[in-house]
Write a structure and sequence with these properties.
GMP Synthetase, Chain A, domain 3, nine-stranded mixed β-sheet, binds 5'-O-[hydroxy(phenylacetyl)phosphoryl]adenosine
Length: about 425
Amino acid sequence: MFRDEKIEAMSRDEMTGMQGGLLARQVKWAYENNRFYREKFDRAHLSPGDIKSAEDLHRISFTEKTDLRDNYPYALLSVPTWELARLHASSGTTGKPTPVFHTRKDLDNWGECMARNCSIAGVRKGDVSQISFKYTLFTGAFGHHLGAELIGSMVIPISSGQTEKQLMMMQDFKATVLHCTPSYAIVIAEKFAELGMKKDSLSLRLGIFGAEPMTEELRGEIESRLGITAIGDYGLTELGGPGVSIECPEKKGYHINEDFFLPEIIDPKTGSPLPTGEDGELVFTTLQKEAMPVLRYRTRDITCLEKGTCACGRTLIRHAPIKGRTDDMIIIGGVNFFPSQMESILLDFREVEPQYVINLVKKGRLDHICVDIERCQAFQPVDGGKELKSRMEARMKDIIGFRIEINIVEPMTFPRTEGKSKRIADKR
Ligand code: DLL
């Protein structure tokens, strides 16, 4: 069901024309109201009037995370502080957080993006949305909350944690939609099994899971364990949080809210734009922000774009599931790969849980990867897991191309996360 058919099914020409107008206005706003952008333009002898369409974007240099850090706390603020309605910040665990600011109008626009996203995912009036993202500076819970409420889905703002209570609330108030990270969905599913609950004791039919990658294998686990459809949603603090893109039930890529966010794909090494369909780094320019516009923000996320009408009828451009972040890419023996590629291989084995850590270690002068992964409760090997270990190592070698050591560890070895999981332990 469309929430805004005019936008969601707009022809490419019309969308390009509309984006041109919004872009010109956004650039002028940033130039006139923010010192960082004014100085950037002046240094490049560029005037806001030079940017009339996406084709002119390459003339603006990228905005990077370090620009926000170097100009902390109000780096990209483009309104006086008394115009602000809300502050959120990145979930980063070290150093200063990255703040994002919203005016009242930004909050309304964010709500609209999230309402559209929830609607694309399949949330309807009369649904009951259990928001199990953490309510904190992190944008996840508040964004999903805004969107679900606007649609008319009753919100249960339970936050993350207290998993047994989560399940009780879900059961008693007949939650139909679960909103959280994929990692926390697995934790909920584990508790559900531990308590011996039956799928038909819940009314859940849909989950919207974001803030970290969800491989197809992880999606399959969540769907079968909870008996729901799992939809992925994407966003980042610097752009306001979730609300940037979402999958529709076709699960053929994430539809981008193109009237709010203009995407590009660039070669992460050279910064040059890449053609549609090629994998590269996702870069976004906001089109309608008041408090904190960002022009050509480098997300570090690797994916590709796909144009064309989706089977759901939407023409909004799609990006493929995020493969990984340039800063999470593992480079060993000249081979580059992302943790998500490894997860897909690991979770193909029914004997293990989606609970693992990829350890990067040094053996002599060489880098070495050793994955610790929990066995399932139901898998009780007589050989201490040796046979499974060698099968998994052989598959890894086949697909990734070099030896990766696998250690099968006991169930519940790793602490469970209520937010994003940390899969890599760099011990080099
Ligand atoms: O994670 C915003 C969010 C909240 C999105 C809830 C969706 C749902 P940050 O904490 O700033 O913001 O982290 C942003 O998380 O650059 C990606 O690397 C990663 N990420 C977010 N969504 C996805 C996804 C929120 N669906 C960073 N798939 C981004 C893969 C994701 N990675």
